[in-house]
Amino acid sequence: MPEPIIFYDLPGNAAKDIAWSPNTWKARFALNMKGVPYRTVWVEYPEIADLAKKLGAHHTSIRDEKPHYTLPMIYDPSTGRAISDSYKIALYLDATYPSPHVLFPAGTESFQAIFTDIFEERVGIWIYRILALDSMRQLPPRSQAYFRQTREVLLGGRLEDIAPEGEGVRDLYMTGDMPLFSDAVIASYANWIKRVLGTDSKEWNDLMVAEEGWWAKLIQAFDTWEVVDKEWLEVALLSPSV
């Protein structure tokens, strides 16, 4: 049996299994939907760049004219490949492990790429503004400082002063009988609300009745793949074995 993929994730204390980030949940959902064996290594924000450089993972953007490195990230011992960015990870999983579940059926990749960009631009940023402060508070101390510094620059103000703009979200119904990566993107943001604010929060309960219960049905469907590999939950510091 091949060695499991190493999946690098961000630890927090909002959820009992410490997995909270919507960006890393996109890739975790993809791994779980594919049924590919993997194990988690927990990495704090200040350690991401050094890890990416060590593994040879590509930067995901340019900030201040410098490469910027982010999670999720995977290292596949079977191929020696290190991949960052949830969308690229999903594409890699489909190409390398094509069965049994296909995340990008033939002819859907362009549509899913456009959908993901639009969703994150119009809806993801709205949720981001709601959850930025609470997301920071549930991080380990070193990551809190990093998160505040970088997000306040990104959002243009103190996290305590940032409020969501607009009301509600538009209809995001996805067609088809089989969940795709686009569905995992949506579920990841809903999962973020649940894990950071909790199921007793007003935001979560408002979401569960929005769109005539469509969000609640989506979350219920993704319960199957909302799994964190328990064996590695105690490993909360960077300790790559590659």
Automatic annotation (TrEMBL):
All residue ranges annotated as the GST N-terminal domain in the record: 11-101
Record InterPro entries: Glutathione_S-Trfase_N (IPR004045), GST_UstS-like_C (IPR054416), Thioredoxin-like_sf (IPR036249)
PROSITE patterns tied to this protein: GST_NTER
SUPFAM superfamilies: Thioredoxin-like (SSF52833)
Domain of life of the native organism: Eukaryota
Pfam families: GST_C_7 (PF22041), GST_N_3 (PF13417)
Protein name: GST N-terminal domain-containing protein
Organism of derivation: Bondarzewia mesenterica
